[in-house]
Write a structure and sequence with these properties.
By secondary structure, the protein is an all-alpha fold. It has four helices and no strands. The chain has one domain. The termini are far apart.
Length: 133
């Protein structure tokens, strides 16, 4: 097996950074939407708005998990580079593998959250069809 070099874990830095930026932007967008819908729900008490708010609560929780896993991935890839610096191939490989797994978990949760966003859009379309939107 070929030794792990600095360039392999180093490739994950830009990928993780872009992923974290995307998660943060999505989170901020959802936070604004929650504030808007909560304000609207206080005046309307529309049951479909409540469904939207519940959906957003789940999605925000999922995005926080994506962010946490992304940070863990960055920590482990940094650990892998540190292990390489101290010439510990085994520790570098294990840390890099964990980094990949946490990034994979983050992406899987992100995919699930995207599916929920489709549900939110369907709720909004149903609301429009009912003449409430």
């Amino acid at each position: 097996m070929e030794p792990l070099s600095y360039s392999t874990p180093g490739l994950l830095f830009p990928a993780i950074s872009l992923l974290m930026l995307a998660y943060t932007n999505r989170f901020l967008t959802l936070a604004g939407l929650v504030r808007h819908l909560a304000s609207q729900y206080r005046s309307d008490h529309d049951s479909q708005l409540k469904l939207q708010i519940d959906n957003l609560r789940k999605r925000i929780t999922m995005l926080r998990r994506c962010q946490a896993l992304g940070v863990m991935s960055l920590l482990f890839v940094t650990g892998s580079l540190t292990a390489l610096f101290f010439e510990s191939q085994l520790l570098a490989r294990v840390s890099f593998a964990i980094s990949l797994l946490t990034m994979l978990a983050s992406l899987a949760i992100s995919l699930w959250e995207i599916q929920l966003s489709g549900t939110a859009l369907n709720i909004e379309l149903d609301r429009m069809e009912d003449g409430k939107g």
